[in-house]
Amino acid sequence: MTTTDAPIVPTRVLAGSAIPIAGTWAIDPGHTSVEVIGRHFMLTKVRVRIAGVRGAVVIAEDPARSSVEVTLDMASVTSSNADRDDHLRSPDFFDVERHPTATFVSRSVAWRGTSAAVTGDLTIVGVTRPVVLDVDVVGAANDPWGGTRAIFSASTEIDREDWGLTWNQALEAGGVVVSKRIRIEIETETVLEP
User: Which among 62, 106, 121, 160 could disulfide-bond with 165, CB atoms 3.0 to 4.6 Å apart, if both were Cys?
Assistant: First the structure.
């Protein structure tokens, strides 16, 4: 007779809400989407995806002591337009030759049910500013390959000029080519490390 390990129960209930169990949850880059969304001519939403992402979410026994660290490969930006992608990688925007990565490092986590406000430092082009990510726990499950996954959704809005990303062009009829307000949306699967 053979025995198998019982599957890990990937969630625990705290204050009536199911959140992932304590542990280090590595970001699965193949199942993670980081999008930066701005407006072109102040009207059209343009989505820029940052494909290169690595990092981890550490869920602590005391959820308020949880943390997040993420590194983004800024050369991996893609918007389905080669000219725009080259411009985004240039010194006008992300200056990837001098600043190949952007990072987010959390400083505090405030839980409310299955949501959290994660305050941390976002560093882009060598400039660090505080931001608050609104995070939702989408769920957790055991996968068919023996792994345990937790899925998170997060978003925030920033003023890109706070990071020195000031390139723009004025329009004849008023307004500018690229909006100052930028939305960042993140969908990520994470895998519990042994």
Answer: 160
Dist. CA 26–CA 23, nearest whole Å: 10
Q: What is the pTM of this model?
A: 0.89
Q: Mind listing the domains of the chain with CATH numbers?
A: 21-192 (2.40.128.110)
- Write out pLDDT tens, residues 79-136: 989 998 999 999 999 999 999 999 999 999 999 999 999 999 999 999 999 999 999 9
Could you tell me if residue 144 is left (phi over 0), alpha (psi between -120 and 50 degrees) or otherwise beta?
Answer: alpha
Burial of 6 (0-12, 13-18, 19+ CB in 10 A): exposed
Query: Is-contact 77 85, C-beta < 8 A?
Result: yes
Residue 35, phi then psi, degrees to nearest 5 = -120, 135
Q: Where are the beta strands (DSSP E) in the chain?
A: 11-14, 17-20, 23-40, 44-59, 67-78, 101-112, 115-124, 127-142, 148-159, 181-192
Local structure of residue 60 (DSSP, 8 states): -
Token pair 């994470």 in the structure block, residue: 190
Residue pLDDT, tens place only, 1-20: 444 566 677 989 988 889 99
